[in-house]
Amino acid sequence: QVLDGAGLDVDFHLLSPKGETLIFDERKSDGVHTVETEDGDYMFCFDNTFSTISEKVIFFELILDNMGDDGQDQEDWKKYVTGTDLLDMKLEDILESINSVKARLSKSVQIQTLLRAFEARDRNIQESNFDRVNFWSMVNLGVMVVVSAVQVYMLKSLFEDKRKSRT
């Protein structure tokens, strides 16, 4: 997401380890992409060459799901459990609930981070608008002062006596 900069747009490229273009967004202000990955190094690029004069502030988040040996970690607890099948069933239910809460908490953190990025972008726009309004208000005030001074001078000149008095 582009938080600050002229136009609030940028190009985005995502290349696979084989060099194939997976995603190409042209002049977008934000985007969310989900990609099924394979082993290797991916390359992503935020390109601002079309707007070389203005710089951009960008927020991005990379979320990697199902990394590592999660299946093995979930099965490690079973070697410490002894007892009946009923106990195993309850432990599996507890583990499932814990994993569900963990996934929802992770999703909540992601959504809050995204909302913070939206808030930062909106704050930057608001500050830019505030500066613009202040500048033009000062220009307007300056013009009003100059116009009022010219009007006072013109009105005063109407009532001046231009005749030379002879004594």
From TrEMBL:
Any matching Pfam family: EMP24_GP25L
Q: Does the keyword Coiled coil apply?
A: no
Residues of the GOLD domain: 1-64
Q: Where is the signal peptide?
A: none
Residue ranges crossing the lipid bilayer per the database entry? 135-155
In the record, the note on similarity to other proteins reads: Belongs to the EMP24/GP25L family.
Key word Membrane present: yes
Which InterPro entries is this protein grouped with? Answer: Emp24-like (IPR015720), GOLD_dom (IPR009038), GOLD_dom_sf (IPR036598)
Sorted keywords for this record are: Endoplasmic reticulum, Membrane, Signal, Transmembrane, Transmembrane helix
Membrane-topology annotation of the record:
Single-pass type I membrane protein
Protein's UniProt name:
TMED5 protein
Subcellular location(s) per record: Endoplasmic reticulum membrane; Endoplasmic reticulum-Golgi intermediate compartment membrane; Golgi apparatus, cis-Golgi network membrane; Membrane
- What SMART domains does UniProt report for this protein, alphabetically? EMP24_GP25L
Entry's Gene Ontology cellular component terms:
endoplasmic reticulum membrane; endoplasmic reticulum-Golgi intermediate compartment membrane; Golgi apparatus
